[in-house]
Amino acid sequence: MHPSLLLGLLAGTALAGTIRRPGRPRPQAPTAETLCPIVFDGRPDSSLEPLDFDDWNTSPFNPDYVKGAGLPWSSILQFPDISPPARFDDPTYQKPFEVTINDSSIFNNQRGFRRAGLQFQGDTNRDSPGSSGIKTIHFSLKWDAQRPLNLSHEYLNVWHETADYSANQFNFQAGAILGQNSLARDTTLRVYYSRGSEPLRSVTNALTNNNAGEGQYQVGILRKPTGTSDVVNSGYHQRNLNEGLIYGSVFVEDGEGGCVSL
Ligand SMILES: *[C@@H]1O[C@H](CO)[C@@H](O)[C@H](O)[C@H]1NC(C)=O
Ligand SMILES: *[C@@H]1O[C@H](CO)[C@@H](O)[C@H](O)[C@H]1NC(C)=O
């Protein structure tokens, strides 16, 4: 089954992504170079071991958030072999990672969600370098047939949450969307997209968007329940969840002067 990925995006953030569909062979493609200053780099060094993702000294991400109580990132992340590599990954020293969720993925007693979301180290909730100017978040997604998402549910996969946790400036989502964003619009967001390892192409104009409120990026899975009006605290998920999504080429670059790596 092919994931139908929906964009519900908002942000002076631009988005970039490459999506690989399951079950289609692809030619090997060379890794592309990044062109702009890197603000946050979420491309793990190949030498990192799972336990390194629990340690502030070694993880590219915040080891403490946003995940099920008592579950360390070393148990949540998987490191599958992916070929060809994502467009901006150099497999000689960088590797992709898979974020997984199961029935224990309950953060902060939010019993309606199953979630595991990575935040970049240095992406502080206030005064973050990722929340000002023009920024582009890059990510490449791959479906895991062993841990498929259930697209009858709504998922958040890449997003930016305001510092007061009251809203998200943009969401990259999958599955059946429960509601629509109705944020005010006064700034811009632009989306670039490609399949496989092809160069990214702009697929939107600069869209009006409300990027106010600072906050942080999150990369991973937030699975919403069905059958409730209180998605945070209640609702239905099937039992024995075993779901995951593979990420590569995750980084945020500075788009000052119109710079973007394609
Ligand atoms: C969920 O996965 C974590 C990490 O592998 C594991 O420790 C936990 O027991 C799992 N929970 C369930 C309910 O399977
Ligand atoms: C997928 O989710 C729907 C809605 O919660 C549920 O009815 C269905 O049983 C789930 N599918 C699987 C394979 O668990």
TrEMBL record:
Domain Glycoside hydrolase 131 catalytic N-terminal: 38-187
Superkingdom, taxonomy of origin: Eukaryota
Signal peptide: 1-16
Classification via Pfam families: GH131_N
Keywords per UniProt: Signal
Matching PANTHER family: GH131_N DOMAIN-CONTAINING PROTEIN, GLYCOSIDE HYDROLASE 131 CATALYTIC N-TERMINAL DOMAIN-CONTAINING PROTEIN
Protein name (Swiss-Prot/TrEMBL): Podospora anserina S mat+ genomic DNA chromosome 1, supercontig 1
Protein source organism: Podospora anserina (strain S / ATCC MYA-4624 / DSM 980 / FGSC 10383)
